[in-house]
Amino acid sequence: MRAVIQRVSRASVKVDGEVTGSIDQGLLVFLGVDREDEEKDLDWLLGKVVGLRVFEDDQGRMNHAVKEVKGGVLVISQFTLFGNLRKGTRPSFNRAAEPQVAEAAYLDFLKRVGQELGYPAQAGRFGADMAIDAENDGPVTIVLDSKDKRF
Asked: Which residue numbers are catalytic?
């Protein structure tokens, strides 16, 4: 699994003009599912996202996780995180999971984020054309990949 995580002051997502998810302070998570992902990939990424200490403490240091600041989490499915440009300029998405597999993993991730936080995560709509509106805070952007943990 691969995620691009942004600390935001607010974020929302619309599908066909209707808001499907919205948060104030928290994390905007763009989530891609690899065709070789397993349960351990989801577990690893989940732990990193909910434990990510990017919110400031009283001394101004990034020392708090999203749950500690009672922040929201908005998760957007994004297979294009697996775009490969090794051959030319048109991306190949061969590493992205098939839609039905990716959707199941996405929904499981959403459910489990909510369980970890004690309140539901917000979401876009899998496979839909979405309009994301976000106010980045910092900016703070983190890239995580369960297959390449060097990020």
From this structure: 78-80
